[in-house]
Amino acid sequence: ARAFSVPLQRPADCGAHRYFDSSRLACAPCGAHQRQSAGGSSCVCEPGYRMVFSNGGFSVTCEKCPENMSGVTQDGWNCISCPKGLTSEGNCKCPNNEILVERSMDGILLNEALCIRCNGSEQSFSASDASGSRCVRCEKTFIQVSKSCDCNTPNILTGGLCFLAHEGLPPKGIASVRFAQLGITLTSAWFLKNLQSSAFACWLHSNLTACQALGNMCVMNMNSLSSSSTDACGLFQYIFVSTARVGIVHSIPYWRHNLPWLYYGDQPGLASQVLEKNHFPTTFTFKGTDKDVKLQFIAASFDAAGNFLKWQSLEGGILQLCPDTQTKLNAAYDFGTTYQQSCKISVSKILLDFANPVFYDLFLEYNGGNGQQDLWAVPVLNLNLQYNEKFVNQGSNMNNWLLTRRFFLVDALSGKENDLRQPPRVIRIASKITISIRLVSRTQRGTIYPPLVTVAYTDVLIQNPETQTVMVSFTVSYEMNQSEAQIQTDIALGVLGGLAVLWSLLKTAGWKRRTGSSIIDLQTFFKFLLFYAGDLANVFFIITVGTGIYWLVFFKAQQFVSVLLPLPSQEEDFVTYVACAFSLKTLQFLHLLVSQLTVDIFFIDWERPKGKVLKAVEGEGVVKSTVAPVSIWRTYFIANEWNEIQTVRKINPLFQVLAVLFFLEVLGFSNLALMDASSSLTRSSESYVAPWSRILRFGVSAALWVAIAILQVIFFAVIYERFVEDKISQFVDLCCVSNVSISL
Amino acid sequence: ARAFSVPLQRPADCGAHRYFDSSRLACAPCGAHQRQSAGGSSCVCEPGYRMVFSNGGFSVTCEKCPENMSGVTQDGWNCISCPKGLTSEGNCKCPNNEILVERSMDGILLNEALCIRCNGSEQSFSASDASGSRCVRCEKTFIQVSKSCDCNTPNILTGGLCFLAHEGLPPKGIASVRFAQLGITLTSAWFLKNLQSSAFACWLHSNLTACQALGNMCVMNMNSLSSSSTDACGLFQYIFVSTARVGIVHSIPYWRHNLPWLYYGDQPGLASQVLEKNHFPTTFTFKGTDKDVKLQFIAASFDAAGNFLKWQSLEGGILQLCPDTQTKLNAAYDFGTTYQQSCKISVSKILLDFANPVFYDLFLEYNGGNGQQDLWAVPVLNLNLQYNEKFVNQGSNMNNWLLTRRFFLVDALSGKENDLRQPPRVIRIASKITISIRLVSRTQRGTIYPPLVTVAYTDVLIQNPETQTVMVSFTVSYEMNQSEAQIQTDIALGVLGGLAVLWSLLKTAGWKRRTGSSIIDLQTFFKFLLFYAGDLANVFFIITVGTGIYWLVFFKAQQFVSVLLPLPSQEEDFVTYVACAFSLKTLQFLHLLVSQLTVDIFFIDWERPKGKVLKAVEGEGVVKSTVAPVSIWRTYFIANEWNEIQTVRKINPLFQVLAVLFFLEVLGFSNLALMDASSSLTRSSESYVAPWSRILRFGVSAALWVAIAILQVIFFAVIYERFVEDKISQFVDLCCVSNVSISL
């Protein structure tokens, strides 16, 4: 072996008679009569042998126990005789309801182990504890119901609790969980153990933890209600309906005393009342103190057994399954920042991090006045919910929705079929969580409707956790009813389009006058259409740039939120306008090109000949005098100059492109097009980068392009053409000097 | 209150006589004689009262205990008389070494509680357990040393263990930890409890766990050795030196049996031997199977008490404190990908996630042949290590380094001063971890030197965990000795520079011949320098573009790794060359501009006058005949055309810029400049994006620019000038037609 190189040995490779030496990181043999301990890092004596010496498990000496005391004590150091037999480990064993006693009360080691039955009679009420080593007071429901430590008929024993048989008890529940996406209905070990006992304890004793546990089992079954079955939600509804007399909590009609609040009632049309009747009491701003700028979500969290864990703020990525830095995770709750995050997570990591499900009741915290913090209950739209076997929440018609309150992130508990210590067969993951905030129309002060959380679950059949992955996403979206802005845009389009018609008519009339004919024929009509195409393109361009600048200024600069950006689905019209502007402008450009190419130009040289020329005529020998010709080179010169000014432009295209790119990318104007609340040009590398808005991108780019073009025009018109050179003026001067005129 | 709005109440706000009702999420009053339980979610009876009825803690009925039985049993359901007094909770209390017995062995409730002393004599050896409720076998070291359950002098009792007094025992250790960055030395509660007992158990009994715990305490003190003190590392060295007879592990001289391997010896100059004498046995490639392409780091992990936890692969971000998706975290171990990650983490999150430190011994796994996986021990360079009070690892001189083996990520344990249940006063975080891989010079097959892990720790004084943050970073860097490439570049530079001198001399000679003078004066010398500037700029450009393309092709396209990119610190010369090329080219350009501006041009019109002109002379009344003048407009025309071809270019600059930007950004050629092993043009949005390499950026951009320019030149020369128009040929034709010639 080379220097500093060691073979790789794992504790599992050592086998039964070797242990893993943690100092050498290699396997080492155990001594005589020993075998590997449970952790693999030390040795223990084989059954029937007691420890004589041990220095932490590394040099262990074992001694065989004699025949008459063949058992070994629980701590492994002494031999003892076991009257009721030995376990496979070599220790004494006792029957189920008897405890194993190896030492007397004051610690004296006995020679023979005793199996003692605990006294369950009045006053003592003792039974064996879970480990079978002490007598402790037995389960209190046993004592309360049957005044003993037994639960015999007609009392009902379920889930380790004893209940008095009653009429009016809730019916027997079905301990099954339905995973509709996979089409699997399995019998859950957790439900088998706890469903009936939770229902009874909640009904009979109003035991708050049991009621929460029952509610959680209903939530694990996707809150699916069905009038025919008595599954977890059926039992919950039974108790809910039958306990109307205990009253409601905080004047909310769906929240019964003692029971968790699971449903918002099941009449159709309730959803729009919940979501739109009341406005959220606080207003939000883009630039203010923390309270007005952040959405302070807070959740009451419960474990599966129904215990209240704590009030949990959602900051720190509680609902965000994809790992990321704190700054980026917390950006989701900045008001106005559209947040999107998605990634693939391996199933083995989910099984490791979310072994026990946590159930959340979500609220939005706000300042209720008088220094008291109030909470607004946030409704949940569970897309997997089935009402009488129909997925009522998956459509876009709000009247069919059945809103609920409680949800979880990962359920790896209800999918365990037979044994709670084994891995589950199916798990359910909240793979798509969306929080949607809607701004009230025509608000001036940032009033919103109550937010809505939409959760979509994915059922995953566990086959190979190391390689299976799940795609999860978390979104916070902001929307408002854009129909008003849409109407205004249409009105502007109509008005300007009409003005464009008039303008095009004027241009056509001018063209007809120049061509001389006064008959309105097909050619006139085509000319009008081409002129109109150009003007309509300008109208579309003005509308779209105006829209972009409007959104840019009014969204980014507002303090009290009164407008929100359109969602990508609401931008379709805008994209159509831009496309129309582009195609019509192309048409106008081709028209201009064609007319420029087909124009006829006449050059007239007004120069008078300077005298006569004596020219010898061939053949005749006579000297004639003719007019001195004017050189044609003069006309060539003017024509050449005319040709060259055909492509003169007011601006320099290379500078335009480079300047716009400089402003967009280097100075950071492109950051104004992000769908967040900040109007700063820079984004630190650590902060969250929101997605782009198409309207804002177009607005920023067009505004920059037009602004830089205008600056160039001003520069050329005012400075360059005045002090350096103006090609048109030069040409005019040339024509004057050379006495040549042109006509088209 | 508005609909769906509830006030926020937390369990802590309920006070002593109310409990937190988890179904209403509000505080509710406890019944008579009751107070809030520890969790806050239920009520318990006050001291002196026993429970009569409880349905899970929500409706509790309490009854006062009579005077003669004023104590309450531990389970709270019965009254009992306490002979030795009551605790503050109203339960019975017993002295320290006596157990509290309320029920007899078979569970019968006693009227009077008993305090029983456990029998510690021979054979039984029993003492009270931790909870004071049972007699169990007492600590085995007590039994082994003093054959009883007491540890009296001359035996030494420390850390809950009993040791036989010896000469040759390790000296008394100092239980202090030094935080050098803050200048604090504090006495650690963990060290006070465990330092001496670990040292004794390791020395006397070779207890492997105790030896690991002692090593961990030395690591928590930054492996700092000092000949004068007997702190944790001093004790470790004492044991290391004194146990030379037990032998070494796997032929590694620094790894003693039974002890953890902490140091690589302390002679100077050892570091270069460790890092450079042997090559790592496996080779790596860029495009191969997983084994050759990934660095398979694996760490043996131990907890603070010295127990071996498991073999831990570093994949999944074990050493990366910044959260990120799995794909990006695992990209750190792709061979050839330069990985950099840094972020700010809040101290409260660190205290939550890393309450118990984990210690890692790092190895690099490779295939050792015969199907056996071998491990190469990876040395650690701890920048906070002090050797005799000097920070020997912080310089760049390898001969002073003292390499170590074990490190941790977060130590929140040694900073606890008095009580292990309180938060620590100071914590230490590995804020800067760097893994550097060096390629062996002149390797053809991807051979590397053993990797080196450099760890820098930050000491944080805990004042306000919620607001304090720490900047952490993790880097994987690849380097090789670039001196060979440097030499080759210098040689090329020298050769081409010499050729450039000859070329400039030729140009100067040509210029002198054209000017006509043959004196070599100062002006000639300046002209030579200006010509040389231009040629030298070309030489620099050729060298730098060649270097960029060399690295691009040879680094990205290689299969067996034989070259690595230069580090940013090794690129300084390259940047200098580019700067020289730019400045010299500017000089040449100015020279060209000036010479173009100061040239004298003569136009000669060869046209013969066509006859004589009869011109009336003013005043004299005589008609004279003079030669018919040739029109000057001809010369004007030629001169105008000549002026316009001064700025004709072979390529179109706007197209050049747009085409290069298109290739770089849209097609993704800029991704070739990333410091990773992939030569693909696209990077998926989920994958890790490596940092840029300056040489590759220049190489890719320059290669694209030159390639597109050449394509444009070819296009213009072959197609455009042949079929559309060639301005130079047109000018020549014009001169022919007009019979005008020009001379400079």
UniProtKB/TrEMBL annotation, chains A, B:
Keywords: Membrane, Transmembrane, Transmembrane helix. One of its GO terms (cellular component) is MKS complex. One of its GO terms (biological process) is cilium assembly. The chain crosses the membrane at residues 529-554, 654-675, 695-720. Coiled coil: none annotated. It comes from the Eukaryota. InterPro entries: Growth_fac_rcpt_cys_sf (IPR009030), Meckelin (IPR019170). This is MKS3 protein. It comes from Drymodes brunneopygia.
